Amino acid sequence: MSEKKPKEVTGKERVSYVLYFLGQNIFYMLTYMYMNTYFTDVGIPFAAVGVIVLIVKIWDAINDPIFGGIVDKVHLKGGKFVPWLRIAVPVLLVANVALFAIPLGIPQGVKIAWAIVAYCLWSVGYTMNDVPIFGLITTITSNQDERTSLNASGRVSAMVAVLLVSIIIPVFRNAIGGWTTTVIVLSVIGAALMLPMGFVAKERVEPTEKQESFSFKEMFQYLIGNKYLLIYYVAFMMSGALNVASSWGLYIARCCIGNEGIMSITSIVGILPAVIIGVFVPALCRKIDKFKLFYGATAVTFVINIIRWFVGYESIPAYIAVAFLISLPTGFVSILTYMFTPDCAEYGHYKTGKSYPGITFATQTFFAKLQSAVLSAVAAFALGFTGFIEGENAVQVEGFADNLWNVSCILPLIGYGIALVILHFYKLNDHDVQLMTQVNSGQMTREEAEAQMKHKY
């Protein structure tokens, strides 16, 4: 590896970066973990939920590359990414509240229309927040170690958000006043945590040459040419798109365990190790290539999911023990997940000679939302095969709990298995990416870098 570079990010920026991801993931986890449950609780049929989520989230995924192109082409006062952070937070706040405020007494068709409109608004607000914050990592510092550290800090913060939302909803939702009141409180907190980043962040890294304008055809060609970006995010999508257990947490707690509050216990047991692991990830990545850590953790997650299936849910201590066991490899996976996009951005710049960070990070958001779209739709439609009856207090059919459990175990195993095969073709490594970064910034010639690289690109 090259010699250690000095730090560029200030303490205020680091703290604001961590707070931003804490707030952003409060918004994200509310929809990721509970939106389907909320929709069926207010009486929207599961089949309609599947259609709503699939249509809106596919549009949500499509608009990310479009917005990424806008970020790369539109130059607002104050920087490439920071101004968008200031604009987008209020939009997300309003949309998130509207999404969880469907009146119970209105006709079912109106409920469905409300859900679609509110979710479309939510998707716009989230995209406007997500693309710039991930793109900012390429302009706030050129230090590869510092980027890794910031990414790890952001992922730890995201895990804390998961923990908070996982505890507050099952335990305090009814006491606070129900879905809408709880979401209003969490949304205000989330927005307050996100706002500082838009006012303290400084974009230090300027392109080495003026960027030419580009068409959407050129944008598509760039994405196709960045093979490692596509390899990684196709695998990423497959590993999560079938992980229905992650969105069925409240259903499993209610119907298999018989206690909605058990979800809070398993969330604490499952997430705290990930938070602790995240503290040590930057140090580990200085000794072990981060992709090797990621691939190994994904493989271990696959194995422990097999164990989870056979252990079952009848013994609560065993159920909690397996939740803790699986949290160890998934902790590494969660923390490392978005650390590969900056590497792919540098690879794309190195291969094409053009820097399109907005497009690259919009691709990340595209696949994250496409994954979420497919997962939400699969989870909604799969409920039909288990015999699910909608309604918060509905009595489920006999055998529903076993059906729910089996499907929640089998589908994730299929997804992780496919992802492991795809990830085998990903060849970028930390050593070579650092050399690419130096070439892209003009600190080293291409010939000097290629002489030191472990692989040919």
Main sheet record: none
The CATH class designation is Mainly Alpha
| Structural domain tally | 1
State the end-to-end distance: 18 Å
Low-confidence stretches: 207-213
The secondary-structure class comes to: mainly alpha
Element-level helix/strand string: HHHHHHHHHHHHHHHHHHH
Quickly count the helices. 19
Number of E-state strands: 0
Please provide a brief summary of the model.
The protein is mainly α. 77% of the residues lie in helices and 0% in strands.
Can you give a write-up of this model?
It contains 19 helices and no strands. It is mostly helical. The protein has a single domain (12-200, 217-426), classed as MFS general substrate transporter like domains (Growth Hormone, Chain: A, Up-down Bundle), CATH 1.20.1250.
